[in-house]
Specification:
The protein has 207 residues and is of the alpha+beta class. The chain has helices at residues 12-21, 68-72, 119-133, 138-143, 146-154, 178-189, 193-205, and strands at 24-32, 37-46, 48-50, 57-63, 76-88, 101-112, 114-116, 156-162, 165-171. Helices cover 34% and strands 34% of the residues. The mean pLDDT is 93.
């Protein structure tokens, strides 16, 4: 990922926080066998981001019918976490000779994907996903008939990715003069949810 120095965020805790906040991610890697892989393929999935290990651990599951899991097993996989993004109008800048741009947040994580194939392991992954997104449903899931749950688990393939390498790009007007940053932040603070989120990150990360 092209990331100018002023857009880099190396702080591990911030990158983990961003991945947890924007956890609907994109898994990218070949589709096909190791001997005859095709061009890269992308799968969009909700993930659980655990603050464990050097850079974190990613957990989730594929629909078993999506054969991308077979291709990614035991391979390095790129996982992209797209964060909030927004157009930035040059009308916000003090200098009239300015051009439009786009502010955004993205985190790229790399690691080798291992499969979780047993029912107990897949159930634990699914429980983690429910706890992260709909904890009120967890008791209902646990009380569903055993046969129904086993059928549902049979239709998915779990996975785990210990993150080996991570990149974070926070393009939030760091290269602009202070007067421009203040104008962008004020406009975003009164804007869309994505703009409000970017304004919040600006407030935290730009001194």
């Amino acid at each position: 990922m092209y990331t100018p120095k002023f857009n880099q965020v190396p702080d591990r805790s911030i990158l983990i926080e961003a991945m947890q906040a924007y956890s609907f991610a994109i898994l990218i890697g070949p589709l096909g066998s190791t001997e005859n892989p095709s061009l890269h393929h992308a799968t969009h999935l909700p993930l659980v981001v655990k603050d464990e290990g050097p850079h974190g651990i990613l957990e989730g599951h594929f629909a078993k019918a999506n054969h991308h899991w077979q291709s990614l097993a035991h391979r390095e996989t790129l996982v992209v976490f797209p964060g909030p993004h927004s157009y930035v109008s040059p009308s916000l800048y003090a200098e009239e000779l300015s051009v439009p741009t786009w502010n955004y947040i993205a985190v790229h994580a790399y690691g080798t994907l291992s499969l979780v194939e047993d029912d107990a392991g897949k159930d634990a992954l699914l429980t983690g996903l429910i706890e992260a997104n709909d904890p009120a449903y967890l008791e209902q899931w646990r009380n569903l008939p055993g046969g129904f749950r086993r059928t549902m688990l049979a239709g998915i393939m779990g996975f785990r990715i210990p993150i080996a390498r991570i990149e974070g790009k926070f393009k939030i007007s760091q290269n602009r003069p202070e007067v421009d940053r203040q104008a962008v932040q004020a406009a975003h603070s009164a804007g869309t949810p994505d703009q409000e989120a970017l304004a919040s990150w600006m407030n935290r990360l730009i001194e």
